[in-house]
Amino acid sequence: MAAFLADHRHVLQYLVEAARLCLTLVLVTALFAPLEHFFAVRRSRFFYKGWAVNLGWYFLDGLALAFVLGPPSALIALAVHAVLPSAVTGAAAALPLWARAVGAMLVGEVGFYWGHRWSHEWPWLWRFHAVHHSAEHVGYLVNTRAHPVDLVFTRMCGLVLLYATGLAAPVGLHPTLIPALVLFIGAFWSYFIHANIKVRLGFFEEILSTPFFHHWHHTRDDHKDHNYSSMVPVMDRIFGTMYRPKHWPADYGTATPVSDSVTGQLLDPFTPRRAETPASAGAAGSTSPER
To answer: pTM for the full model?
Structure first.
């Protein structure tokens, strides 16, 4: 009887999570679809090529990460607090919640930046991250096109710093609040920077990532190895990976062979790869950049 009830609780969890994902999708689409229609960088149909694949990844990752991300997060949190002295991990404990939240966004950005950058620079990690770059049309839903291994690795790079600095703690009042807040704000902003919206923020582009900034990260040429920051472009300024010309990119995608289906993309990183075309074989150098 206990096993029967436990199985039903798991089913109920998945149903609740699926309902939450459906509601989130409706809200995100209601916000970004009109903006992409009226202020598009490039005009396209609502059901553009690759739309169904993005949607498949949205539900697959949404249902999987709710249960896959938890255990490694807890283990890393406990390991960090076991290794580092309490004077380090507890340094931020006395800060008010708002200060911890702001600090967590900035500290987490450092980890997310390097996790993202390593996903480009390390060939084995690129196998998983190439799934995200396989989209030839960049819009808000491309944010969801990502291999679970890629997502877990990048998020762990950010979360480990939050636990190490004490901005997030595995124990105490609401131990998951700060990590959840960082991931929620980061996810929303990621929808924005992927959106097919022709918008510029002037001076604020030095402070916050924008679609213009991130679309250059999705080009087929060598500029995909720039603009790694998810929210704070100053990271790219500091580490020399900023790329911001005056015009929008000409095309998107990757020279790395990637399957067209969700199932194929899920399995691709674990199979022998065909020869990769050099990323710089595209239209790089057609316009002098402002770095």
So the answer is: 0.82
